[in-house]
Design brief:
This protein has 157 residues and is of the alpha+beta class. The protein is built from five helices and nine strands. The protein has a seven-stranded mixed sheet. A two-stranded antiparallel ribbon has the order 6-7.
Length: 157
C-alpha cells in the first residue's frame, strides 16, 4: 500500500544517470521535492510522461520544487534515455537492491518487477504533502501535477 499524505517520506540515497549520489534528506530545510516513480526507461508511456514534465519544468521551478524521477533501470540505461530525450532533471536508479525505494514507498509491483506510476510531493521538512498514483498502463496527466502543487502551497509548513 502506498504511503499516505502527512507521513514522513522514507529517506533514500540513489545514483543519478551520471553516477552521482542523490540523498532525499539533503533537500530537507532547503527545497520541496517531487519524487516521480516511472516503471521503465524507453517505454512509450514513461517517455511521453517524462517529456511532458520536461516541457512543463517551469511549473516546478516556479513552485521551488526539485524534480527527481526514479525507475528500476540501471544508471547506464537512464543516462542513455536522458541524453536521447534531453531530460533536464535527474533520473535515479532504484536498480539494486531491485526496487527497494519503490517498495519503501509502497508502489513496487512485484509481479512486474517495476514501480507503478506514482508521484509524491515532499515538503522541506520531509513530509509527504500530496501524492497521486495511476493504474498500471495509465499515464499521469500534467494537470494532476498542477493540482498537487496547488495542494502543497495550501498546506502550512
Amino acid at each position: 500500500m502506498a504511503l499516505e499524505n502527512d507521513t514522513r517520506a522514507p529517506d533514500f540515497e540513489l545514483l543519478d544517470q551520471y553516477g552521482e549520489s542523490v540523498r532525499l534528506s539533503s533537500f530537507r530545510g532547503k527545497r520541496t521535492v517531487a519524487v516521480v516513480f516511472v516503471p521503465l526507461a524507453f517505454s512509450g508511456i514513461c517517455t511521453n510522461e517524462m517529456c511532458a514534465l520536461s516541457e512543463n519544468l517551469e511549473m516546478f521551478a516556479d513552485a521551488g520544487v526539485e524534480l527527481l524521477a526514479i525507475s528500476v533501470d540501471s544508471t547506464f540505461s537512464l543516462r542513455a534515455w536522458a541524453e536521447r530525450e534531453k531530460f533536464p532533471f535527474r533520473l535515479l536508479a532504484d536498480f539494486w537492491p531491485h526496487g527497494q525505494v519503490a517498495k519503501e514507498y509502497g508502489v513496487f509491483l512485484p509481479e512486474r518487477g517495476q514501480a507503478n506510476r506514482a508521484t509524491f510531493l515532499i515538503d522541506v521538512e520531509g513530509i509527504i504533502r500530496a501524492s497521486f498514483i495511476t493504474a498500471p498502463g495509465e499515464a499521469r496527466d500534467i494537470a494532476a501535477y498542477r493540482t498537487a502543487l496547488r495542494e502543497m502551497q495550501r498546506v502550512p509548513a
